[in-house]
Amino acid sequence: MRHFTNVNDLGDLKAALDEAFEIKKDRFKYVELGRNKTLLMIFFNSSLRTRLSTQKAAMNLGMNVIVLDVNQGAWKLETERGVIMDGDKTEHLLEAIPVMGCYCDIIGVRSFAQFQNKTDDYNEVIINQFIKYSGRPVFSMEAATRHPLQSFADLITIEEYKKKARPKVVMTWAPHPRALPQAVPNSFAEWMNATDYDFVITHPEGYELDPKFVGNAKVEYDQMKALEGADFVYAKNWSGYAGDNYGRVISKDRAWTVSAAHMAVTNNAYFMHCLPVRRNMIVTDDVIESPQSIVIPEAANREISAQVVLKRILEGLE
Amino acid sequence: MRHFTNVNDLGDLKAALDEAFEIKKDRFKYVELGRNKTLLMIFFNSSLRTRLSTQKAAMNLGMNVIVLDVNQGAWKLETERGVIMDGDKTEHLLEAIPVMGCYCDIIGVRSFAQFQNKTDDYNEVIINQFIKYSGRPVFSMEAATRHPLQSFADLITIEEYKKKARPKVVMTWAPHPRALPQAVPNSFAEWMNATDYDFVITHPEGYELDPKFVGNAKVEYDQMKALEGADFVYAKNWSGYAGDNYGRVISKDRAWTVSAAHMAVTNNAYFMHCLPVRRNMIVTDDVIESPQSIVIPEAANREISAQVVLKRILEGLE
Amino acid sequence: MRHFTNVNDLGDLKAALDEAFEIKKDRFKYVELGRNKTLLMIFFNSSLRTRLSTQKAAMNLGMNVIVLDVNQGAWKLETERGVIMDGDKTEHLLEAIPVMGCYCDIIGVRSFAQFQNKTDDYNEVIINQFIKYSGRPVFSMEAATRHPLQSFADLITIEEYKKKARPKVVMTWAPHPRALPQAVPNSFAEWMNATDYDFVITHPEGYELDPKFVGNAKVEYDQMKALEGADFVYAKNWSGYAGDNYGRVISKDRAWTVSAAHMAVTNNAYFMHCLPVRRNMIVTDDVIESPQSIVIPEAANREISAQVVLKRILEGLE
């Protein structure tokens, strides 16, 4: 594997899952694989889980790790050719990116949607420039439209907890005070579509996701109806995607907050969320603290998904 | 040893000191002990000595280290159940702490007293939540009421420099422009009470420490009288503890600044301070630069105290 | 080698270059040399290339690395004796520096000219205090008046690309919106003077560098004339050095921006710059993107120059 930005990069999911479970049994089995190899983790946005889990995964593989926090305000990259750089941008990406590639073997990039230009966001301008100009394998630590390390961890978690071959998985929108990117729900939908699960998406009208990601999922506007018989409830907020609603908060309706009443109509479903989660906005205290809440094991699997990805990229280095 | 937050966690001090001196002779003797083990250092407050010395100690033991700086302003954790999280706090500690525990083997936490709620500070709410929810061994890198890695290093230093079996050790308050926590003096008193030294505390009236920490120490309000015949002078500022004075600066009286005149009444005492030190507030230039000043060897012993603690926690991992 | 702050510390340049090319062939040949040795990198100023390349070089040698970012505003060191430290400076350098030396084997320091006191800048007050008080070998990661790791990388690059034994190397001033230190041009001049290259410096009147660094270089105020027949064009902005112009921007004349017209009079010269570079201020897009631009290989050699320096300091440790 060279780059990792979406589900297709991983190839056969069954093989990837087998690899994940093998690594989970012995995290240090491949500790020699990364010897004298350096991972550079570049954060344009803040991070807790991704920062820690990816660093841990790299160290499990014996890699050296360099973390570079790009302060959003302080370090502005010029992206246009022809500009006279006499303002506040001190470096052009056409120099900065290949330079970063000089000092490492693999690059991880976190760069969220900026909600300033939908086309740029959905064309993944930032991470694609790293792929084009760095000369190194690049993987997403959450890009503008996808968060594949999260989705892979979600898949691993569902495989660990599922009680039937083809569980019903319901991704439900839930309210949040701020406008969040669509990367997590897009990506989760993309990965669920790559399985044979019964996958349903529910959200208020106006919160339709990009059809490219919705794929064959059933979209149901009645949240309670969607949750009926669910084996897994995957809650997440996102801001509007379609038309003028792009990047906007359309609803803060707390009737959508996942509560015991919602869980009661499910098939004793497990509750999942990528974290961080706003309690009593996304989900009530009692649901997230219930035995059916698997948010912590889900987070723990972030180390495993990152390690499979890094292992495969390491194996692909010439 | 599972957790390390106070002197009692270390057990027999003689054995701990022997271990410290053994490690100081060969810091890399146990470099295999920490192989494939990860230390997560979490800083809610800034740090120089603790950051560097603990990281160095962990690397001496062959550990991997991840440092997480929690910007006090930016990363606000919700601590109450039942709150609708629609404000500026993006994550609840009930998720954040177990998640951090997922990606490491041992957690070090620095979290100072906040002077907003004395009961919360003296109940050590933050570090105790890490102990309760992280699922990992936790050690203090200075908590609200104690700084045990500093006190252990202080003890090692006194043992190295003392010229009699039972030296006279005087902890003296000294002025400072800002309100500082009581963690260092509390902790130093706690550790001195665990030895058979002749231990005296001196401070202006109003600066009485929590009796739990003062223990059997002699409290003497006359600084010069307290210093008479001292073998070690341990200077430190702290803010008020008792009643309405909690967290307040009551005096900036520079007559308490440790000077040559103060040192003249001692038994040619060694001068100690945990650093950073405000010169000519806490101590005069000539005293801290004199041959009797052992503040640098004292700081150097922070690596040793941290390494004993990490070694013991590593040995206690299942 | 004990310290590294200028070209003389490296001794015979031919031997140093041979060592650089040996390391470039196998970066991990000396991976055992740094075992259980710790590099402390201290940044008083921000850094991309130096941060990454020096960290990578240290890891190539098997060292442990601790990075300490000293926020310029937050962490103020008192430098004067006798001051009553009741203001915003929390620690005196006479304590801070030896303490930092306690927890490492080698110290790298980045500390730019502050343009507040020319004598202090040109006496290299900050890095010299580290040399005097840390008790450790110290190397410059760009100090007030020199950037020797950059100059050494520049020399390696010229040696790799030169087509004749004694190439003509022209360092040309170019415009920039802000006042930049003279460290890079000073240092480059110092290193070029240590070779037998034909070395020319060109800049507008008023931009004369310290004669100590200019040395035997030919200074030519007519940029086009200077560039005639050049084999290497080394562009760089700097602020005024002489008299009242110290630290000031005297000209932003974009006629000095290196363009295709400038390159046309050279001997098909290679274009070099230490980066980050302001496009269309220092150099036009077409020149920096041309096949003759070697700014990326030049940046890549920063890893090599740092590794030679660290290797030699490691070999010199008792």
From TrEMBL, chains A, B, C:
Organism: Bacteroides luti
Quaternary structure and partners: Homotrimer.
Lineage: Bacteria, Pseudomonadati, Bacteroidota, Bacteroidia, Bacteroidales
Keyword Cell division set for record: no
Function statement: Catalyzes the transfer of the carbamoyl group from carbamoyl phosphate to the delta-amino group of N(2)-succinyl-L-ornithine to produce N(2)-succinyl-L-citrulline. Is essential for arginine biosynthesis.
Gene Ontology BP annotations: citrulline biosynthetic process; L-arginine biosynthetic process via ornithine
Pfam families for the chain: OTCace, OTCace_N
Top-rank EC class of the record's enzyme: transferase
EC number of this enzyme: 2.1.3.11
Family: Belongs to the aspartate/ornithine carbamoyltransferase superfamily. SOTCase family.
Alphabetically ordered keywords of this record: Amino-acid biosynthesis, Arginine biosynthesis, Transferase
Gene: argF'
Protein origin, superkingdom: Bacteria
GO molecular function per UniProt: amino acid binding; ornithine carbamoyltransferase activity
Pathway: Amino-acid biosynthesis; L-arginine biosynthesis
InterPro entries: ArgF'-like, Asp/Orn_carbamoyltranf_P-bd, Asp/Orn_carbamoylTrfase, Asp/Orn_carbamoylTrfase_sf, Asp_carbamoyltransf_Asp/Orn-bd
Protein name: N-succinylornithine carbamoyltransferase
Residues that bind carbamoyl phosphate: S47, L48, R49, T50, W75, R110, H147, P148, L149, Q150, C274, L275, R302
Positions bound to N(2)-succinyl-L-ornithine: E142, H176, K236, R278
Record-linked Gene3D superfamilies: Aspartate/ornithine carbamoyltransferase
Catalytic reaction(s) noted: N(2)-succinyl-L-ornithine + carbamoyl phosphate = N(2)-succinyl-L-citrulline + phosphate + H(+)
